[in-house]
Amino acid sequence: MGEMKEMKRLVVLLCTFVLAAPGFAQDKTKIDARLDAASDVLNQIMATPDKAIPDSILRQATCVGVVPGMLKGAFILGAEYGQGVVTCRTPRGWSGPVFIRMGGGSWGFQIGGQGTDLVLVAVNEKGFQDLLHSKFKIGADAAAAAGPVGRDAQASTNWKLQSELLTWSRSKGLFAGVDLSGVAVSQNHADTDLLYGAPETFENVLRGDVPVPPDARPYVRTVVKYFHEAQQ
After folding, report:
1. Are the CB atoms for 162 and 143 separated by under 8 Å?
2. What is the pLDDT of residue 12?
3. Where residue 56 falls among pLDDT bands split at 50, 70, 90?
């Protein structure tokens, strides 16, 4: 009798796994596509020096967030919010990524819209700490400024003192600093846990205490390629 119950339990578990597997694979594919799209955004922006993120900011960056808008005509994000990926600098190199959502504010429907990419760079410890909060609002909980453009460009003299985040937008090939005041940033635990295969806190991941998953290594290498070189 006991063996029969155990057999039924195993059959139920197997059926549950089989039914859930397609959804899991689909969600994982979306996550991988988001990481690939974020890499593409950084590569394309940094490929044009006079329109890239300045070296002075690359050297100061504590964290980098990328919210890609579209990938190959099929990766269009929701109209109400954008899905992004964040990684931070640690004493051992750049951390594995975590996922965030952005929405609200005057940008509203434009965030994550077709052809619109966003880049956020935390430039001090406060900016790093902001990303550890479950939710914060740019301009209210986190001071932000539109980032300057051009590898040799200089940010205003007080940006280190008055800003935790510098923000940019790219739409139709144009890359420029943007005011994201009022935009809410929240942690996407579901996608982050799916990437790592188990629940992980944002703090542990962004402090470098969790190994970078294989699927995320190409994206992290892209960040290292640009932000590490600026340190030389």
Report:
1. yes
2. 41
3. confident
